[in-house]
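Note to self: keep these together.
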Amino acid sequence: MRQIRHMLRLARDGVSAREIGRTLGIARSTVQDNLARASAAGLAWPIDEEITDAVLEQRLFDRVGVKQGVRRRVEPDWPSMVREMRRPGVNLMVLWEEYRVSEPGGYGYSRFCDLYREFERRVTPVMRQHHAAGDKVFVDYSGKRVPIVDPATGVVRQAEIFVAVLGASNLTYAEATWTQALPDWIGAHVRLFDFLGGVPRLVVPDNLKSGINKASFYDPEINRSYGTMAEHYGIGVLPARPRKPRDKAKVENGVRFAQSYILGRLRAQTFFSLAECNAAIAAMVERINAHPMRRLGTTRRALFEAVERAALLPLPSAPYVFAEWRLARVNLDYHVEAAGFLYSVPHALIREQVDVRLTERTVEVFHRGQRVAAHDRRYGGARHGTDVEHMPSAHRRYAEWTPARFERWGREIGPETEGLVIAILRGRPHPEQGFRTCLGVLRLFRGLAPARAEAISARATAIGALTYKSIASIIANNLDRKSRITETTKIIDHPNLRGAGYFH
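Structure:
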């Protein structure tokens, strides 16, 4: 319309159609046709300021005999066309061919496409993304939370609302979780796929820290635990662009709808457990999915059953077991720390970086993709979980030392030696501090007759010589024998025996 106004001004100034065409870069015939239309409509320069471009276009190009707003040909059922476009393998060419079969005098392909896109713009005022059946599910947490009261203490705790929306059918799922942390985030996905009875090709999350370690348009870094869950289900993860909510407009709309439909209708109820809250939310979700969509003329549930359920991938045969992955470095004592407890790995991996996989029952350690250790997960008791096979040989021998084992070694020699071992172990603040002394004593007794070892043990116990050096001194100075001579002398000098003829 700007060019037509310029054209009328130049024509009033006496410029020829050829020169006008050269000036505006259009054909002379186009200039002549537009000037003829203006003359027929009674328009000349200057044009009244009240005539807008829309009015000018209508007066110049309005088709004679066609009432404004009335189509000359039979139009298809556009809402049904939109629904059919969500089926796998369906495109505008297929729909147009079917339309022309039922309406041979209908619109041509290009006009059909224009009218279809015009209807789509009326359905959604922004760029409409085409979502094929079974292709994407959009997931996010609602910004609103639901209060849950502890019946024992009366303390109110806020629960998060997880919302998911399928791209093609708009089928909606929602549940309450205590937190947005990784176990709750992944658990909500597992229950979502059970609700759907299948798995779409892609999941589109927001850049929540539980799922995305590093947000990036080009190369987002997926949390390893989240990625493991996706691998189990055979689903791809395609995070939305940071600060681009229209990338996941489905779930944004679903969140708003869930907030009004769920939280708005449940705001007067008081919940005393997470299970009770989720039961009420499940009832609201069914109402959402049974609610007719105004522009499409059908419900989410009906559209899901018609076009999307069959397009979903089957659920895996084995249920998913939640596992959390962490990076760790092996300490000098060949243990790694996980969830407050220490677990051993082969001692050759000291100072190496490893991956730790934690499930509810097990702790597994991987080095360069190979599993090097597996332990039962500890929730109490001793802080160290040590596998003897992971120890160096010297440590392994030391780990086999116990008070009972040393007492058994002493008992094999005799009761006096067993008593000495017990005295050594009990004479230390901790029994382990006497292990080396017991080992030294047993080495000193090696090669001695059991009778003499028993005598040495008796002598050491009697005088309180409970160290390695003192017992070695008894052996070196033959103090056990001197003790026997002294005892014999005492017997000879006994008044009841002196002169009795027992000794000659």
